[in-house]
Each structure stands twice: as structure tokens, then as C-alpha cells.
Specification:
Layout lengths: L2 E7 L6 E12 L2 E9 L5 E10 L4 E8 L2 E6 L4 E6 L6 E6 L3 E3 L4 H10 L8 E9 L4 E19 L2 E12 L5 E7 L2 E5 L2 E6 L8
Parallel strand pairs: 9-10
Antiparallel strand pairs: 1-2, 1-15, 2-3, 3-4, 4-5, 5-6, 6-7, 7-8, 10-11, 11-12, 12-13, 13-14, 14-15
Length: 204
Amino acid sequence: MPRGRYSIHDPHDHTPLGEEHFHCAPGPSGWRYVSQRTTPSGEPAASVDLALDELGRPVRLELHAAGWQVRGAALDGVTWVRTDPAGTHATEGNAPAHAFTGTSPAFLVATARLLRLAPGAPAVRVRLVAFTDPVLAPRTVDRSWALVKSEAHGTDNGPLTVDEYRVGCLDTGEQHTVHIAGDVVLAAPGVELEDLETPPSDFT
């Protein structure tokens, strides 16, 4: 069960946004990721609880941030309920999308698991519902994902395969690189792996 800590910063000006303390693990029916986000001063800020099925589809998502809450799952595309901080209004949403995304590194692993790309294959287009900080407002986005290469690196625990993805934002044309090993993001825009207590899970 990988357990560790990411630092989160603004990908454009590198302003520190806090840290995400996480643990995750594959199971008989898929994969689960649980995390707590803190502010740069160490105050609790947000949480993520994401569960995928064996095909990488989100079977349960629960987000909390700034008093807002989102619960979602893959149903007729993706469906979610967003509740305000007072708990008096709940708004249901639905979109013909493949999965969810957001600022948590969990969503990068989840998208990679969903697409299961082959190295060197053409880029794949994927539609996602993004929940934006800090009020978890939903926004549908289109991304392109391509697995550039997979390389094995020697470690004290045996070889570690690192996948390098090229991710594009189809509305802006921006592209960036994401490095993932198993179910841990090693590096991505706005994300740095600061501490890892146990090796990444081997999905193979």
C-alpha cells in the first residue's frame, strides 16, 4: 500500500498551494486512493476518496473542499451531486464523459488506468469532468493522452517501470509531461512527490 506526500503548487508561477498526504492500493475489484490536503501553513484544506473498478472507471468519488462536497460515479457517463457548505442545497449533474479529474494526482493515475495506452500508439482523446478548487465547481474538459515510453529503472526493491505520458489540453493546445510509476505520480505540472514510504503498486 503506497503511502506518501505530494507537494502541490501553481503550475504557472510555482506558488505553493499545500501538500497532499495519501495512501492507495489495488484490490480485488480495482483501486482506491484516499488523501488529505493541507494548506502551506498546515491547516486542513480538502480531501479525496476515489475508487475505481477493474477497468479504471470511477465507481465512487467523494471530494471535500472549503465546506463543499461532491459525490460522484460513472453512471450514464458520469453523474455527481454537489452540496453547498450550509448543506441546504444539493445540485445533481451529469455529463457524457469518461471520468473525473481535478488537482489531486489521483486523477492522473486514474486516467492512465482507464486508458491503458500502449507505448508509441497515437494519442487518445478523453472527455473528463473537472472539479475546480476551491469550491469544486464542475467543468467538462477534453484532453489528449499518449504514452510516449515506458522505462525500467533499477531500485533496491527491484526494477521500477516509469511511464512517460504526453497530456494535451484540447481547448488551449497546451501540452505537458506526466511521469507515473504504478499508482504513484513521480512528477507532473504542479505536482512533486516529496516522500514515499512504500514502493508503488505493480498493476502488471
